[in-house]
Design brief:
With 412 residues, the protein is α/β, with parallel strands linked by helices. The protein has two domains: 135 residues, Alpha-Beta Complex (Aspartate Aminotransferase, domain 1), CATH 3.90.1150; 241 residues, Aspartate Aminotransferase, domain 2 (3-Layer(aba) Sandwich). It is built from 15 helices and twelve strands. The strands form three sheets. The protein has a seven-stranded mixed β-sheet, with helices on both faces. Helix 7 runs parallel beside helix 8. It is globular. The chain binds pyridoxal-5'-phosphate. The site of pyridoxal-5'-phosphate (PLP) has 13 residues, from helix 5. The site of pyridoxal-5'-phosphate has 13 residues, from helix 5.
């Protein structure tokens, strides 16, 4: 193919197998009717009738915005009130000790981009879990860094602190900075949630590995699915372990309005930094604001104001919490149907606790997905398994899915 791209960009393309499978499911549904197709690829909450859920309180406040609120340029860092609301919404009653500041980003994706860009060097390895969201690979690769994975879970289904330690130590033999992305809460694609003790063990590994202060660790806690990961305050308790850490460990929470506010396409989030050192946090804001100026400039004003409007009214926060709790429950019920049937059918799955996805580990995922598609069931093939979006499959369609999977796995 004739190409004029710069060498680092040659051959890259954003062909996403998730969107591709979704497109095939939509096309088939048009042909044979939505009721006859199970589309388990969509990473957004769909109602029992298959329509996209937009929280009522969010809908109301988006409609109430004034023209300046939705059209004016927002500050590059983000509106102060918005950033304060993000910090409050993220931590709840478990705000960690330390200096905390934030910059607006276009969703959690923007957070990942900036941290990789500003805290690692070209050629460095960035550490992620073996089970991870596919976009991590591109976010790391497009910045000319390298993906390094560790084994997320032990064979008995717990956080694999030993594998984490081994990889952290090995990377720090070669690099002064290590960036880690840890989607440890309602993990995409497995639904695993690290306990407070497991988060603590991860932080302890970093403390030990950076005892020599020439080494720095930057831990991104990717909390994209936080609001559907458990009871509101209980699921936030782990944030406390990020307080009082040595100054050469920076924690960045990748906070997003995509799921918690169902504002996926509004592209809004915040990078929330936590450090025991004032200078580290000042530098954090300075360098990341600079990168915002140099990439997307300022973020969406409308989404920031919608959040501000909700968070300034305790009644609206109550409504927000109640709506999230309702959908958390719905997703749990859908998952419970699958889990019960999968156990009966002998279909193995990675330990699911909460979140939008369940993963079925298989070695020939593409072949299994191809067979399922003939049965009008669409799922996402991953390297080591198949991803089932419990956020988007109705309870009715969830019944019998494990059976279809069992047959496809046998046939493949
Ligand atoms: N992290 C994980 C694990 C995700 O699955 C997603 C979205 O699917 C994101 C982060 C970021 O999404 P957004 O950029 O829409 O906030």
């Amino acid at each position: 193919m004739y190409s004029i791209a710069a060498p680092h960009a040659k051959g890259k393309s954003a062909e996403d197998n998730i969107f591709a499978a979704n497109n095939r499911a939509i096309a088939l549904a048009k042909e044979i009717g939505v009721e006859n197709v199970t589309n388990a690829t969509v990473g957004s909450i769909l109602d029992e009738d298959g329509s996209l859920v937009v929280l009522d309180v969010v809908k109301q406040e988006l409609k109430n915005l004034t023209p300046p609120e939705f059209c004016a340029y927002a500050p590059i860092k983000g509106y102060d009130e918005f950033l304060k609301d993000c910090i409050d919404q993220c931590f709840g009653k478990s705000r960690p000790e330390g200096y905390i500041d934030a910059c607006a980003t276009p969703g959690g994706t923007g957070v990942l981009h900036h941290v990789v860009h500003n805290y690692s060097e070209p050629g460095d390895e960035v550490l992620i879990t073996d089970w991870h969201w596919g976009a991590y690979d591109s976010l790391i690769d497009d910045n000319n860094r390298k993906v390094r994975t560790f084994s997320f879970l032990t064979s008995d289904g717990h956080f694999n602190a030993a594998s984490f330690k081994e990889n952290v130590e090995d990377i720090l033999k070669k690099q002064d900075n290590i960036v880690i992305i840890l989607n440890g809460i309602a993990n995409n694609p497995t639904g695993y949630c690290m306990s407070v003790a497991e988060w603590q063990s991860a932080v302890d590994v970093l403390k030990e590995a950076t005892k020599d202060e020439t080494k720095n660790a930057i831990l991104i806690a990717d909390v994209a699915y936080l609001d559907y990961s458990g009871e509101k305050e209980e699921c936030r308790e782990f944030f406390k372990v990020f307080g009082g850490l040595p100054k050469n460990i920076l924690v960045v929470c990748a906070y997003t309005l995509s799921k918690g506010f169902t504002m996926y396409g509004q592209r809004m989030g915040a990078m929330i930094g936590i450090s025991s050192d004032k200078d580290v946090i000042k530098e954090y804001v300075d360098i990341n604001q600079y990168s915002s100026r140099a990439t997307w400039s300022n973020c969406n004003s409308a989404a920031q104001h919608a959040m501000i409007r909700i968070c300034q009214d305790p009644e609206k926060i109550k409504q927000l919490d109640a709506e999230r709790a309702k959908y958390y429950k719905l997703i749990q019920e859908r998952a419970a149907i699958f889990v019960e049937e999968a156990q009966k059918e002998g279909v193995k799955f990675v330990p699911y606790i909460s979140g939008f996805f369940i993963t079925i580990p298989v070695t020939n995922s593409q072949a299994v997905c191809d067979i399922l598609e003939k049965d009008h069931v669409f799922m996402v093939p991953l390297k080591k398994g198949i991803r089932l979006a419990v956020c988007s499959v109705s309870k009715k369609k969830m019944h019998g899915l494990a059976h279809k999977l069992a047959l496809a796995i046998k046939e493949a």
